[in-house]
């Protein structure tokens, strides 16, 4: 990189983000330690990852808990088909991110600790699938 030119924003892979989130949630690092160890530039970047990808309920700086609910308010009208599609797409994206998180955790366990986790026999990884 040329001297005098500094990139102010970095792109991190989802696997990297999930790996950092797992380490912080397991208590191996604080979010500030993770930021320093991995050279993450933004002060709140790791906190944003924790809120978005973490399994714990990370409150935002104002002290409010995040709203993870996609349930409509009881007195509201039923969603339109377009709204329902958006809601389902959001749920699908979150499920895919969780699956990627678990895959990243398994990779870290295998690479860093030599631990392999096998799926229980007789169970299909697909919903609705059966072993007959």
TrEMBL record:
Gene3D superfamilies: Winged helix-like DNA-binding domain superfamily/Winged helix DNA-binding domain (1.10.10.10)
Region feature Disordered, mapped onto this chain: 58-83
Keyword hit for Coiled coil: yes
InterPro entries xrefs: Homeodomain-like_sf (IPR009057), WH-like_DNA-bd_sf (IPR036388)
Keywords: Coiled coil
Transmembrane feature ranges: none
Coiled-coil residue spans: 85-112
Keyword Translocase on entry: no
Stated name of the protein: Putative transposase
Species for this entry: Burkholderia contaminans
Taxonomic lineage of the native organism: Bacteria, Pseudomonadati, Pseudomonadota, Betaproteobacteria, Burkholderiales
